Amino acid sequence: MTFDLFGSDSGALTSHDKKRVLALHAQLHAHAYRYHVLDDPQIPDAEYDRLFSELQALESAHPELQSPDSPTQRVGGKPLAQFASVRHRVPMLSIRTETDTEATGAQHFDTRVRKELGLTASEPPVDYVAELKFDGLAISLRYEAGVLVQAATRGDGETGEDVTQNIRTIRQIPLRLPANAPAVLEVRGEVYMRRADFEALNERQRGKIAQGVKGEKTFVNPRNAAAGAVRQLDPAIAAQRPLSFFAYGLGEVTPPDEGGPEFTTHFAMLQTLASWGFPVAGQVEQAQGATELIAYHRRMGASRDQLPFDIDGVVYKVNALSLQRQLGFVTREPRWAVAHKYPAQEQLTTVLGVDVQVGRTGKLTPVAKLAPVFVGGVTVTNATLHNEDEARRKDVRVGDTVVVRRAGDVIPEVVSVLLEKRVHDAPQFTMPHQCPVCGSVAVREEGEADYRCTGGLFCGAQRKEAILHFAHRRAVEVDGLGDKLVEQLVDSNIVRALPDLYKLGLVALSGLDRMADKSANNLLEALEKSKQTTLSRFVFGLGIRHVGEATAKELARHFGKLDAIMDAPVDALLEVSDVGPIVAKSLRTFFDQPHNREVVEQLRACGVTWQETEPAPRAFMPLSGKTFVITGTLPNLSRDEAKERVEAAGGKVAGSVSKKTDYVVAGADAGSKLVKAQALGVAVIDETALLVLLAEHAN
Ligand code: 5U1
Questions:
Q1: Shortest-distance atom of ligand 1 to CA 92
Q2: Domain for residue 650, yes or no?
């Protein structure tokens, strides 16, 4: 590819444009480095996007200004039929693996190095560098005149594949180096995927699969996902895969006698790479002799699960480059380095059964029961199959041999089945349509991946969540009934269902942890107070799926009476503004569960009460159909009060500004919502104008 930022003019192109493009390159590179490498952005994303768009516009108006090191070139080019071969000018060596995962593995390496160097026991410890062994894919990046010109996989060490287009999409990899970088520089390192990025990618994939998108799949682990993305023929797809990079070595470099850098230690070389903008892992350390290598291995092993990416071991390297040269290598592996492994995070085991567990929010999750297996440092007996589609896709059956993975604090999961080892044909897993805990109907809504139990108030698995929701400030409000207390009340079986709350007495409460008489009395008082509530708070407090606070208010206003809501057919529910087919169906399913109705009756019998009113269909409401966003501090009304006033007049209060917003009510210190309203041309009013609006409509 040719490019010329300073060459001949093409008509309308001005020198100002050229300077601006260069300035934008510099700014965007610097901000991307702060964001992706240093994790310390200096400008908001929106400002970065603005600069980026400006550069894109200039480049499309003057294509001659486009260069391969432009930040716009990270988006991925045309799909390839196949990768071209790249012959490595300096072979890409692999690394010897020490399979003894105990501390003795480090000792073996040090003993070998000392022997090769002819060091006696009385001579000082060898100076090493200790690094992490990333679980990714080795890559060589070639820079000429400071510009990334080629990226290649290791292949067989002599010849790899040209994956430049895909590698360009990795924002941590500099496209241009500072002026003090050598004329030719090959940087070697590992492309990997952070665990959180991997989880998010798989979540997106699961969503696509649930929506029936053809050809989509989930990835087995971050390493496979990273390797798949690097070897993806369509760079636009690679660009959507969130990859990261760490540098750990060099290939060809301009020699010192031709003006190239002169390093004496590996550590100094890594520091220089960092100064040129390459990400170098923060865990790189210098270590003296075997004792410090062992300590490093232990320390990194203990913090392995807290790292944001997978490692499969650590790497030790002799620090002095002169000693590295003296040690040389055997076949393709240097004698001056070793990878010291950790116990594997994937293992084989047998499936003993498949259960379905119900989570705190009613989600049903198929779980494989496994023959105990030591994986990722713990003994695993259960592994998630996520949901019905995943369970079907993996087709896990009793008796199967499966790959189980446990990495970090992520729940262990079944990665795949070894079909060739399936001995007998056990039946396929089918998701139950009833909750295994309470027997209520379990439903899977359109477009969703999970089945959910509909017995929210009755189901033992959802008890804690249901109580906390019911007691919430915006629901019936039981002051002082928080997480810890609910945990104790439910675990000690004092509260088995919501109505039990109103049967609590001093005797039961005083037996609880950290519950003095005063706190117990306060709680009983709060419970008594909560009995006087409103219909909308009560309906919201029932925790019906998709029925938020605003919908509960609409239902209360529209029907006026609980029985009318409970008995309303879908058609009648659909007449309520804010209620669409999903909400209507959810309400119907909830109140069709006899258990749920029973709990409602018991709560009424316990004295929970509210004022019932005449039905007030929405057509009569003055602010019907108007959406408000309230932001900043209003002079007189609290935000909650303003919200209540708007809602009482039939308006809706949303949390974020969009084109659909009718009014933004802005008080002092209103921030981004005000800015967005102005950008979208949404009407912005103050508290006085809101009060006028409410008064006008009240007439
Ligand atoms: N951190 C690190 N990983 N890693 C992998 N350094 C490192 N060095 C390697 C490899 C394959 O090879 C060199 C020792 C040639």
A1: 15
A2: yes
